[in-house]
Amino acid sequence: MAYLVFGLLLFLGTHSLRVGGDVRRDALRERMGEARFKGLYSLLSAAGLALVVYGFSVARDTPTVLWTPPAGMRHLAFLLMLIAMVLIVAAYVPRNAIRARLHHPMVLSVKVWALAHLLANGTLAHVVLFGAFLLWSVLTFRASRQRDRAQALYYPPGETVPTLITVGVGVLLWLVFLSWLHGILMGVRLMA
Length: 192
Fold this sequence. Notes:
Blueprint: H1 2-14, H2 23-32, H3 34-61, H4 71-90, H5 97-102, H6 105-120, H7 124-150, H8 160-186
Helix pairs in contact: 1-3, 1-7, 2-3, 3-7, 4-6, 4-8, 6-7
């Protein structure tokens, strides 16, 4: 569990530099220089992610069960993951209405992903991993929206075709994960 916690601190810590505002991140970037800042940021993020993956896999080998979620939670998680997949795609497709309306679909995708997995799993490792990501996404989304308001940021309205592409690719991605990719990447087959 220590590897998982340390990895989360590294990974989410580096990705939280803007949560309290840009002053801290900008000061670090100015003091270190752009290239060194990005290099260190990337190195710490990669190391944190590797520790999260390793720590979670070790913790899953000897699970500490906190509760057993009802079967309905698994179905709710499937539905929430459909939303999360559409949101993640919305972060990358230009001029879609989802991004225009929600402003930060990547962070919202992480929030929905973490919530879905918390609802469907009741082990300590799952609570630590997905609880940390849920807390991070709530704080990051709040900080991002505050930054948008402070900068009077304007998001142009989305267009129909990019929005339809976003939803279509999100549904396709969800189906691929549900039927195949989750089993390969995570070792847990969702559909037998």
